């Protein structure tokens, strides 16, 4: 008798749990707010040290002084005096700092918060610095491994919910265009004389990686476009004295603008095709040009020259003295600068861009900002 009562009680409780879940799906308020994870893909803009663990050149590594000198007090592999953009995004999302995927301590326990797959020097195209960086497709294949582990550990249902709630951020493209234009690489797949075709390949490959992540269960994506490449100190060293208007007219900046036009069209297309797909696109090209032009407006003093390096604009990429040129200069007040080395940003500038991605209700980030993507949990009851 007792066991039957217990059984009835059990059925009742079970029934109540099920009804609560169903009500939740309709009202979308009563399930406890789950922490959405952050998965990071792309190039040096986002790399937190994956390249420390691959066989590459010192040009593709930043694991020596003075990188890391301000925030971490030691070189972590980030191309910055301190943090890179995803470090701030993780902080805003109340997540811990996310480890590079190849870091020995990165494991299942911390995949619960996400992980960082980005690799300095990498591109959307396999051919971009092949062999010295982890290309975007390979990064996506690492993510599939993680997803497999999560599905095994959490079960399919919970893993699906976890992956749908996570946010996936991607910064890629700069190296595809930069390498094709600034090196006479025989591996360039497309004649750069046909810029639109080249841009279509890059965009096509980004789209295909987003679809791979979607297949695994990803729904919320945050992207950056590509900056005005000829205006980076590393490019301007060759044209000392030219204005910001002039470097924007040059070839690589013009291709970056083709990319800037094509990226939102691709994302809108995916939104039409893929159920539940949401994105946030930050106009890095526009935002960077703005802060380079008006550094004082955003709390900087120098928007065009780098803090660390040599030559005009400190654009010779010698920061750290390990890339062929031994002698380099280092500025005194790093927080005055938008660029730390000849290509990459200071901790303070990374924070500026992370803010734009997170809260940007201005014209630089649309249609959603990352804060909104983190808050969406419409897929909580989708399974
Ligand atoms: C790293 O690359 C160098 C040069 O390509 C090669 O000689 C060396 O064997 C590689 N090391 C490993 C561990 O793959
Ligand atoms: C590319 O090749 C051209 C012609 O061969 C040469 O003038 C130029 O300096 C080369 N550029 C680089 C970056 O190697
Ligand atoms: C991706 O890039 C490769 C070259 O690396 C190209 O052959 C392929 O067509 C591209 N894929 C898409 C979908 O555009
Ligand atoms: C341009 O070159 C001149 C002479 O080498 C140098 O004095 C000046 O500082 C350079 N300008 C910039 C912006 O680096």
UniProtKB/TrEMBL annotation:
Keywords: Signal
Pfam families the record matches: Lipase_GDSL
Entry annotated with the keyword Signal: yes
Gene3D superfamilies linked: SGNH hydrolase
Record InterPro entries: GDSL, GLIP1-5/GLL25, SGNH_hydro_sf, SGNH_plant_lipase-like
This protein's record includes keyword Phosphoprotein: no
Signal sequence segment: 1-27
SUPFAM superfamilies assigned to the protein according to its UniProt record, in alphabetical order: SGNH hydrolase
Gene Ontology molecular function: lipase activity
Entry's family note: Belongs to the 'GDSL' lipolytic enzyme family.
Designated name of the protein: GDSL esterase/lipase 1-like
